[in-house]
Amino acid sequence: MPRSRRKFDIDEFVRECLQAWEADGAGAVKDVLDRTLGRGCAPVRECFGDPREAHLQVLYPGPELVIENMVWAPGMSYPAHNHNTPVMTGVYAGLEVNDFYHQTRTRKGGRLQRTATVDINEGQAVLMAHDAIHRIANPNRRTFTGAFHIYMGDYLHSSRSIWYPDEAAETPATFAVTKDIFAAANRDLAAARAADAEQELHKKKAAAGTGVLGGSTGPGSASGPPSGPSASHPHAATHSAPHAPARGPSRRGSRPPLHLPGDQ
């Protein structure tokens, strides 16, 4: 008989991360994350269900660790920000593009200079340094991106910055700002769905007028599962893409600050 696929359990995952942290720190937690993704991303997606909008779900609130399930809407981006604590990202669905920055100080304040871009594909995990500044994007205009974000320490109550609404404006990072960003992304998603539905309706009317049956009913269309705008990024990865590619996260530009806390 074929062996049944192991289910993903949130409580078990949190417990393994906490035990690893207490035993051997961030490196051990990343081993847990790598092992979880290596077993297959499909069980994780099945546990969380099909997303209908962008959202942030706190799986464990600290103080020793903060574990979150982040769901990025199609085409969504989150502005440049810091954490002031090491953080690791593990993608279980789609693609998460991270632009890394270095902050330079001037008389007029701090300015950001992009230093590298790292694509974290489905099945991959990356550990970032405590001083990392990065911007996150889901470049795929059709599918959601799902990822674990694990913060070392009491992240929810720490002092942080976000460069919002543009990279020249450093401001305190608050959950009110995060809420506004996610709400805006979901409004954009709703508008894109409405535009797709209207376009599909026009196609069906045109086909009916010529006596030709038409209209797409497959995934990604207005009558299929929820989707974003029609354009697709060249690096896009769908939920059916193979997990855990043989190569590591792809890097463009100079190497970003990706290292364990002990290396700092």
UniProtKB/TrEMBL annotation:
Top-level taxonomic group: Bacteria
Disordered: region residues: 202-264
InterPro entries given in the database record: RmlC-like_jellyroll (IPR014710), RmlC_Cupin_sf (IPR011051)
Biased composition annotated in UniProt, kind: Low complexity: 219-248
Database matches in Gene3D superfamilies: Jelly Rolls
Protein name: Cysteine dioxygenase type I
Lineage of the organism: Bacteria, Bacillati, Actinomycetota, Actinomycetes, Catenulisporales
